Amino acid sequence: MSGFHKLTVKDITRETNQAISIGFDVPESLKDTFVFQAGQYVTLKMVINGQEIRRDYSLCSSPKSGALQVAVKEVKDGTFSSYANTVLKVGDLVEVAPPKGRFIFTPNDSKTKNIAAFAAGSGITPILSIIKCALEEEVHSKVILVYGNKTTSDTMFLDALLKLQQQYKERFSIQFVFSQEDGEDSIFGRIEKSTVNYVMKNKHKHIDVDAFYLCGPEAMIHTVKDVLTANDINKDTIHFELFKAAKPVDVNNDAPAHGNTKITITVDDETTTFDMPQKQTVLEAALDHDLDAPYSCQGGICSSCLARITEGAATMRQNNILTESEVAEGLILTCQAHPTTPTLAVDYDDV
């Protein structure tokens, strides 16, 4: 489940001055392992300057294409993103974990449905995969994209999106939003309440949208969600994935600082039991005991470290992923979870 496979970098494309897309060569023996759904991501692992680095990157290719491609935008002081943008080259080996993630689009060509996507910056990456999948595999469905950036030169996959718009001109509409450029047919500013209302209640008021996909910074996602729900959109039709959270805020301050728990962890069909301090997270304890538990961001933003509690209880100090019903079912982000009972059983395989 959490195993990595060494894949060769097949191609690198410069998308903007600060972003590249990376294609991997997947050998025939691993084709089934790397089958993915639109919207999913892979975890990349490399040793850089003697330190093991893991990062999650969404797949931007469509499942039907057979390609395994991610995009990496260089961020300030970003160890992996800087390396990828300046050092990584075709032919290099990168350890890649199988695709995963819950921000997914499942095509169904027997049903015509319309989707609207809101993306900002590098949040376009999984959205692009979803758009391609919807256009390719649902031949009657329509797609609306609202895409925010600073300028056109900062816009990842601009050419690819314009080509898709030309190819599917009756089914695919793009509304660009630029915060530092006043372009033709674009909106000046950021994706905010007025943007959402204009696109959904004016420009495309004749289209009944069946599902919404949001990806980008937390503030943008909350803005779009709030406007949609204020307009009586069913919250179950709104799907989102954070690419960058706001400053972490403890959502539960009851995590104990003292005491011990006897924890049982199952990962990759192997079960281990040991004592851990409750001030540690489940993931920290697992890694301290050399268990191959899956993880990446360790900040409660991705879902790489997802597991299920099968006995006992734990509290999460932050949760940007799981719904209330999923938490009630026992799902936890182990990088944020502290035990609150004398015994705790956690299963990484049962998710």
Brief sketch in words of this structure:
Helices cover 19% and strands 33% of the residues. It is α/β, with parallel strands linked by helices and 351 residues long.
Strand order of the largest sheet: 4-3-6-1-2-5
Which spans of ≥5 residues are poorly predicted at pLDDT below 50? 247-251
Strand % is 25-35%
Percent in helix:
10-25%
Query: Which assembly state applies to the chains in this document?
Result: single chain
Shape: globular
* Helical/strand content category: alpha/beta
- Separation, N- and C-terminal Cα atoms: 11 Å
Main sheet attributes: strand count, strand direction, barrel closure: 6 strands, antiparallel
Q: What is the arithmetic mean of pLDDT? A: 92
Please give the count of helices.
7
Pattern of helices and strands? EEEEEHEEHEHEEHEHEEEHEEHEEE
User: How many beta-strand elements?
Assistant: 19
Radius of gyration: 21 Å
Pfam families: FAD_binding_6 (PF00970), Fer2 (PF00111), NAD_binding_1 (PF00175)
Protein name: 2Fe-2S iron-sulfur cluster-binding protein
Cofactor: FAD
Domain 2Fe-2S ferredoxin-type: 261-351
Write structural notes for this entry.
- The protein has 351 residues and is an alpha/beta fold.
- It has seven helices and 19 strands.
- Strands 4-3-6-1-2-5 form a six-stranded antiparallel beta sheet, covered by helices on one side.
SSE order and pairing:
Layout: E1 5-16, E2 19-25, E3 41-48, E4 51-58, E5 68-73, H1 79-86, E6 93-96, E7 115-120, H2 124-137, E8 143-149, H3 158-167, E9 172-178, E10 187-188, H4 193-203, E11 211-217, H5 218-230, E12 238-244, E13 260-267, E14 270-277, H6 282-288, E15 306-311, E16 314-316, H7 324-328, E17 331-333, E18 337-339, E19 343-347
Parallel strand pairs: 7-8, 7-11, 8-9, 9-10, 11-12, 13-19
Antiparallel strand pairs: 1-2, 1-6, 2-5, 3-4, 3-6, 13-14, 15-17, 15-19, 16-18
